[in-house]
Amino acid sequence: MKSTTFKVIAILSILVSHNVYAQYEELAEIMSVDVCQCITKIPVGLTQSEIITEFEVCVTSYISENLDLVNAFAEQNGIEFSLEENGEELGEQLGLNLIQSCPQFMEIVVSSINREGEEAYTMLLEGNSLINTEGCNAAITIYDDIVAMENVPDSTLITTFNNLGYCKNQVGDYYGAISDLNKALSIAPNFSLPYLHRGDSKSEIGDYEGAIADFSTYLTFDPSSALVLNKRGLAHYNSFNFDSAYSDYYTALEIDSSLAETHYNLGLLNNYNERYQDAVANFLTVYKIDPSLVDLSYYISQSYIGLEDYDSAIQVLLEDSLTINDEFNLTEVGYSFYMKEHYGEAITYFDQAIALNDQYYRPFLFRAYAKQDSGLYELSLEDFESAYALSPEIPELSFYKGYSLYELERYEEALAEFSKAIELSESYASAYDYRARIKLILNDVEGAIEDYSSSLTHYPSDDEIYKERGEAYVQMDNIESACTDFLLSKQLGNTEVEELISTHCSE
User: Fold this and answer.
1) Could you give the CA distance from residue 507 to residue 170 in angstroms, rounded to a whole number?
2) Cα dist. 243→237, 240, 246, 267 in Å?
3) According to a count of CB atoms within 10 Å of the terminal CB, is the N or C end of the chain lower?
4) Cβ atoms within 10 A of the Cβ of 259, count?
5) Sorting pLDDT into bands at 50, 70 and 90, what band is 24?
6) What pLDDT shows up at residue 54?
């Protein structure tokens, strides 16, 4: 007989349903008396697998000893009976009879269920302990074993699925976490923790609206949880619901003003909204509570840069011992020196950043700017090309490379770069300006006027471009249009056009 012939779960199923097999009712009734006597010899407290084995022994022994009776029953009912094919159906009918007529059978089964429940609870405690010692991967193995068991009490199963969700979230299996937390909530929809953990998982996969809904549900159970208010505030921030984010952060800090992470997140929000002075205050508070928070020096430097306080930005970054091995911090040090027009120092820090990570475009870009602003146009070209290779969607890269080529009088190459910048950003007025200037140099006056006109469409208050387009019109002998542009340039404050007006527009 296969070990699965008489599954205890199949026997127990008749407690909640009546999926019985009438064709075996008479045989099961005959067998139940002798099988019950056999069962009384089975000790109480066995596991399910042990009960299966003992139960099978009792049934197979009876059939072996009464084979003629079984065959006669089969012939009378017009069926071919074998334990291999019909054992499970007979087992369910026999189980029903035994539950009704054999108290010892019920005692053994209930004892097994209780033992399985105790075993599952013990395993749950073991898994919980492993989280703090060996980590979530070890705990997940235990939890998986629990949910695969039969007859685990709901109270244990709910906690197991919740803890599985928590641990899968910790190891990065966010979709698996959500699935397990859904199972916990399907059993106990008023259990608060799965909403919290599912909110964490949804935040990680970018489902911020779903996360907000879960955090909000959790807060109906525990409205004074500053930690969850902080989590919901961050989900609002990532959804660009800034007013709601501010509200959650402020409420969290009213409950617990010592939450470094909330001050930190409030600083990020203030930085994003260009409230740099407030952001500095937030980050300085974080330094007092928990200066170990990741990227703290980087973000406070961003606040100082927003305030154009480059010296403070440099100071806070260089005081961070991690900066020397952090390409992002080194880049910001270089950027701050660049903004102070200390190009040599800037290039030094950009060099260090690139040595750590040559796949980050920003230090290449600003090293190119520093070289360009130092008049080292030829040397800037390679850095612009490196930056473009890493981030080709940024139009400024093509524009400024074009500017270096323009200064080197490599006009055809510069023209191609300005055209590339315009392809990436059709409203890039400066790219139209320089492309127009090159077209004038190359004697394409009509093309230059077209580019000047495109530039003015996007930036109509540029007095210099009206002046230059007017001069292009003069080359085409279109004096009327030229004078119109000169007068517009003068109205916008350009005094250099007065001589042009005197020369060409005196009548």
Assistant:
1) 81
2) 9, 9, 5, 14
3) C
4) 21
5) low
6) 77
Task: Please give the pLDDT value at position 56.
Answer: 78
In angstroms, the CA 107 to CA 85 distance is: 29
Scored b (16 or more CB within 10 A) or e, 179-207 reads bbbebbbeebeebbbbbbbbbbbbbeeeb
Q: At 248, list the tokens.
A: 């959650």
> Could you give the 3-state DSSP secondary structure of residue 189?
coil
Please state, for a pLDDT cut of 70, what percent of the chain lies above it: 88
Domain boundaries 116-222, corresponding CATH code? 1.25.40.10
Domain 231-325 adopts which CATH fold? 1.25.40
DSSP one-letter code for 22: G
- 490-500 tens-digit pLDDT: 999 999 999 99
Which residue has 């003629």 as its token pair? 68
The 10 Å Cβ neighbour count of residue 122 is 12
What are the sequence ranges of the domains in the chain? 8-101, 116-222, 231-325, 462-507
Helix axes 429-441, 395-407, angle to 10 degrees: 30
Question: Cβ distance 320 to 313 under 8 Å?
Answer: no
Please list, in sequence order, all residues whose beta carbon lies within 8 angstroms of the beta carbon of residue 426, skipping any fewer than 6 positions away. none
* 434-476 per-position pLDDT tens digit: 999 999 999 999 999 999 999 999 999 999 999 999 999 999 9
Task: Say how many CA atoms lie within 13 Å of 376 toward its Cβ.
Answer: 14
Could you tell me the maximum CA-CA distance found in the chain, to the nearest angstrom?
Answer: 132
Residue type, 407: E
User: Which letter does DSSP use for residue 324 in this model?
Assistant: G
Give CA–CA dist 61/32, Å, rounded: 13
Q: Phi-psi bin for 100: left (phi > 0), alpha (psi -120 to 50), beta? A: alpha
The DSSP letter of residue 267 is H
For the chain, the C-alpha Rg in angstroms (whole number) is 39
Q: How far is C-alpha 135 from the chain's CA centre?
A: 21
Domains 116-222 and 231-325 share a fold: yes
Distances (CA, A) of 492 to 84, 138, 282, 485: 99, 72, 43, 11
Cα(476)–Cα(469) distance, integer angstroms: 11
Among residues 495, 494, 467, the alpha carbon closest in space to that of 483 is found at 467
